[in-house]
Amino acid sequence: MSVASLLISGGFVYTGTAFAGTVQLSDMIDHAADAGQGAGVKDWKQWPAVGKAELRWFVFDVYTSELRSESGRYQENQRPVDQNLVLKITYRRSIDAEDLLEATQEQWLHLGYAQTDIEQWSKVLAEIYPSVSEGDELSFVIHNQQGGFFFRKRTQADWQSLGEIKEPLFSNAFISIWLSPETEYPRLRQQLIGGV
């Protein structure tokens, strides 16, 4: 994969495989991040759990999610991006990367994000999201307002870095899918933040 630095019109910055659009040099996603580090921190895998939740759609188990923080607590009076957090998702069924992206876009629309932001963020996620199988894990780590995606197949012991995102607005928007008070799944949010 060739790495090119891009700035997409509207101010959203990313580093990844080149695609059509307005480009300038910058650095938002670092695909060369060390798999042992998440957004600049090595010990995120040992952070204590805040809460856990399971998403079911009708009779289908979709995933189990777990929120972790350095302190083991979630601070509701702070924006999620202002806290050091890990959202770990363990998938209970196979889902294509395109379907993950579509579900993410739907959640951002539900939360009221601008279509132009969603389009820009989706270009980044299209480069990052893997297709997942039952038992695979995807973690999003926020440390010092920067986010990092990590992936582990159920058959692997080690986590693979999918890229670091150095844009706080993106990191906040992504984690808000689960942690915003306006989330589509308020019961899951309460479980994740340790409220239920």
Automatic annotation (TrEMBL):
Origin superkingdom: Bacteria
Chalcone isomerase domain mapped to chain residues: 58-194
Listed InterPro entries: Chalcone_isomerase
Protein name (database record): Chalcone isomerase domain-containing protein
Taxonomic lineage from the root: Bacteria, Pseudomonadati, Pseudomonadota, Gammaproteobacteria, Vibrionales
